[in-house]
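Quick start: read one record
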Amino acid sequence: MKRHAIGVILIASLFVALLASDPHKWTNDATPIRSVEPIDATVKSAHWGKGQSVYMLFEDGSSVFIDDDRPHLIGARVAIERVTRDNGLVFYRFPE
């Protein structure tokens, strides 16, 4: 039993760290969507890295960052959606 104590402690601590790392994301993903509003925006810049593209969009005087795997031209007008969940979380996404 003593030989396995370090391994059990290590695995248990990794599991606890995984659960504690992002509980809000799991909660927000499970919360129902209250509203979805279409918005027009302009693509200002694109950032690529680690197999992911992040676009900076400009809408109504504010900047918004959105992850998307599809290509979008810089300077192009695009349609995005402002999504509000029941818990008050607001995020933006490209329509499917």
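The helical segments are 5-21, 23-30.
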